[in-house]
Please model this.
Amino acid sequence: MKKVKFIYNPFSGEGIIVKNLDIIINKYQTKGFTIIPFRISNEQNLKEAFFDIDNSYHHILVAGGDGTINQIINLIKHNNIDIPLALLPAGTANDFAKYIGMSSNIEESCNKILSGKVKKIDLGKANDKYFINVFSFGLFTDISQKTPTQLKNNLGKLAYYLNGIKELPSFRKLDIKVISDEFFYEGNALIFFTFNGRTAGNINISYKSEINDGLLDIIIVKGDNIRSTILSLLEFLRSEHLEKPKDIIHFKSSDFIVEYSDFKLNSDIDGEIGPISPIHVTCVKNGLKIIY
Model:
């Protein structure tokens, strides 16, 4: 039987994976796979999940949220592991898993993986950290960290908008500089995004992004004044903000440097803490094998 390393977070998504363990194992065994599980916990270093991985494994199955997926992708890349990844969405937002069409129904997602094909997709890299979905800093990162998980679960993307509008009057804009072959910008930024995927907090922010074009999508909300910023946020709700941008800059690049004024401010990478300024961001074309 073919081996699959199954790395799962039992705490993600109110324990949805634990409730579906038998379904997952049954689906895989029926298709001729042997599941080798690794349970994520505070007592064991996640690195231990990779000690026995070699070419005898068909793929790595990950069940968790965006942060769990990010940690595992970084371990895969830093350990030069070249076997495919498959994703079972089990977190709060599950932005990238949803982008590639994975259902919140675990049985449906298993079926999709087991009938899917191995494809190569791009990855982003900020200094020495990889991201599959989004690298960001500014207001959105701040409100994402401040918004309670329960509120995110109950209200979804509306929770981000409510908290974002509440924080607008007090949030200090950043002075940033972006340098790339395609674009140069020096000025204000309220929110800065770099997308490989399309959504953050289930908000369809970068709907023109592709995961196999060798480019990242950069979106800057300048925040020149509160009125224009609120209008921009309303355009986000209607997915119109990239069509006739007023307070927004959008461009694509495979390699750029970004600097911001608050040198103690952490960036965010797929829900995990990212590097601080200055940050060299690149697109790693075909950087990951994934099944979907």
Notes: Confidence is low (pLDDT under 50) at residues 150-162. The first helix runs from residue 16 to 19. The chain has nine helices and 18 strands.
